[in-house]
Design goal:
With about 140 residues, the chain is of the alpha+beta class. It has a domain of about 90 residues: Arc Repressor Mutant, subunit A, CATH 1.10.10. The protein is about 55% helix and about 10% strand. It contains 6 helices and 4 strands. Strands 1, 2, 3 and 4 form a 4-stranded antiparallel sheet that branches. Helix 1 crosses helix 5, helix 1 packs across helix 6 and helix 4 crosses helix 6. The radius of gyration is 15 Å and the shape is globular. It starts with a helix and ends with a helix.
Length: about 140
């Protein structure tokens, strides 16, 4: 899987998770989200082949991008992710919007959560891409 595809997957996962939890702050652990939890003696997260996990690295970079671009706010940074994460007003506004390109009746956030719950990762990634694009247009 290419980096941009993993990025889209993690955007969908992170935004849907924080949308469900809103307004409560939640921990974002890139080990949990990437599925790679094993570490070596130095704390480096490893994949199934016992090499540095690219999924983990991209997941963590996706979190950082969502923070830097104003979709989420955090209060604590850890080695493997962020604590006390919550959607910002920008993130919430994007997820509560209902652009016609996605659905006339469902918000982006509701659609994203529904697709993730159904296991429709490919469709959720498309909605996540649309959410990021829509966020760029309105801000």
């Amino acid at each position: 899987m290419e980096n941009i595809e993993l990025f889209d997957e993690f955007v969908a996962t992170i935004l849907s998770y924080l949308y469900i939890k809103f307004p409560l702050e939640s921990a974002l652990d890139a080990r949990e989200l990437s599925g790679d939890k094993e570490t070596d003696e130095y704390g480096t997260v490893l994949d199934n082949n016992k090499v540095r996990s690219m999924r983990f690295t991209i997941c963590l970079a996706t979190m950082e991008w969502l923070i830097e671009t104003g979709y989420i706010r955090i209060k604590d940074k850890g080695q493997y992710g962020y604590g006390r994460a919550v959607l910002t007003s920008k993130g919430l506004e994007v997820l509560k919007s209902t652009p016609e390109s996605i659905s006339k009746n469902e918000s982006i956030g509701d659609k994203l959560v529904k697709l993730m719950n159904e296991g429709s990762l490919q469709m959720a990634k498309e909605v996540a891409k649309a959410a990021v694009s829509f966020g760029i247009k309105i801000f």
